[in-house]
Design brief:
The chain is about 40% helix and about 10% strand. The chain has about 140 residues and is of the alpha+beta class. It has a 3-stranded mixed beta sheet. Helix 3 (about 80-95) links the parallel strand 1 (about 65-75) and strand 2. Helix 1 packs parallel to helix 3 (about 80-95).
Length: about 140
Amino acid sequence: MKYGKNAFDNMDKHFNDILYLDGHSHLESLKIQTINQFRQLRELRLINLSSKADKNADNIKELDDKAEYIILFADMNPKSELTYRIYEEAVKIQSQLKNIEIKFAVSSFMGYALFNQFVLNLNQFKVFCNVLKIKNF
C-alpha cells in the first residue's frame, strides 16, 4: 500500500509487475502461501472467519481463480488528472491479463463488514466516478 498522490509516481512499475505475475507460476505459489497464512492465523486464533450461518468459512481450501490487484485511493483528489491516468492505464493493462483482476478501493466505510462493497472492478469504478460527476470519466 502506498499513500498520497506522490505514491502513484511509479505506477508503471507496478503495472509491469502485474503483467509479469499474470503469466508466471509465482501467482500459484502466492495463492498457496496465502492459504497457508490464513490457516496459520486461524490455528493461532488470530482470525475467525466463520459465522453462525457458515461454520466452514474458516476452512479455506482454495482461492478464486482470478487474483485481485487492488489499488487503494486514499488521500487522492478524485478530480485530479492523475486519478484518471491511473484508471486509463489500469483499463489498458486489464485487457492483457488472464489471471488477475485490477480493482480500485476508495477510502470510505472500510470496516470489515463493508470492505467488499467498496472494492470496485474497473467498470464499477467508472460508474462510481460518473455518479460523482468526476470530469474525464
